[in-house]
Design a protein that fits this description.
With about 260 residues, the chain is an alpha+beta fold. It has seven helices and ten strands. The protein has a domain of about 90 residues: Arylsulfatase, C-terminal domain (2-Layer Sandwich).
């Protein structure tokens, strides 16, 4: 955790230098800055006695990086790659459920800071659920740039996100439609106060996010109609965005590995 603190300090100073440079060049008021952290604490553990990948990822000086929580090795240097395991991930994610990789709140929730002098009201706060897919339409609207329907002869899929510019200005803003997640079989839908989520290969769970943000009271059996509606929305989204079922994706990977060994 001391290494994390040092990383945050270095990052904070680096962001400060960027903002000072923008100010010195008279560009600060014409620049929208977003800052958000990664999605959830990582509960993975890199064993000290497990199979090593050391040397696969050389440091900038060309020397090998030692991968694993190796006893006696000081973390933080350019030649180390370690993890902080489930206990610290749990501390980082409290009070949310699960961690990076899953799509319960512990794996998808992150604060987002927006800075734009003269546009974003100072010290303003919003609890509206937004998504990284909203960043592109927000930046396009802020820059007055169109979204291209084609890239040469190739059709470009429509944007799934929604511009947050009204929200950033402090205006009334509500999401149109649902948000969706999928990662290695873990799936979720968020529509208004409801969140439908499942941990692969388990069943759907349903939570009222206004009353139970920590996802402790599963309401799936109490509101089967909501489960059916949101799961159908997920199916339509997966088809529209070409999200393959996890079992199918694993089968494709197995076939490719066999062909490579061929």
């Amino acid at each position: 955790m001391a290494v994390y603190a040092a990383m945050i300090d270095r990052m904070d100073q680096g962001i400060g230098r960027i903002v000072r440079a923008l100010r010195q060049h008279g560009m600060e008021e014409n620049t929208l800055i977003f800052f958000l952290s990664d999605n959830g604490g990582c509960a993975e553990y890199l064993r000290e006695d497990g199979p090593t990948q050391s040397g696969m990822y050389p440091a900038r000086d060309g020397k090998p990086v030692r991968i694993g929580n190796i006893r006696g090795l000081e973390p933080g240097g350019p030649h180390t790659f370690m993890s902080y395991d489930r206990p610290w991930a749990n501390a980082s994610n409290t009070p949310f459920r699960l961690y990076k990789h899953w799509v319960h709140e512990g794996g998808i929730s992150t604060p987002c800071l927006a800075y734009w002098p003269g546009v974003v009201p100072p010290r303003s706060l919003s609890h509206q659920p937004v998504h990284v897919i909203d960043l592109l339409p927000t930046l396009l609207e802020a820059a007055g740039a169109p979204y291209p329907p084609h890239n040469g002869s190739r059709h470009v899929l429509p944007l799934e996100g929604q511009s947050l510019l009204p929200l950033l200005r402090g205006e009334r803003w509500e999401r149109e439609g649902a948000l969706f997640w999928e990662h290695e079989g873990n799936q979720a839908v968020r529509l208004g106060r409801w969140k439908l989520v499942r941990q692969y290969p388990g069943n759907w769970e349903l939570y009222d996010m206004e009353e139970d943000r920590t996802e402790l009271n599963d309401l799936a059996n109490s509101y089967p109609d909501v489960v059916q509606h949101l799961s159908e929305l997920y199916r339509e989204w997966a088809e529209r965005c070409q999200v393959l079922p996890w079992e199918r994706l694993q089968e494709i990977r197995r076939q490719r590995r066999q062909q490579a060994k061929g």
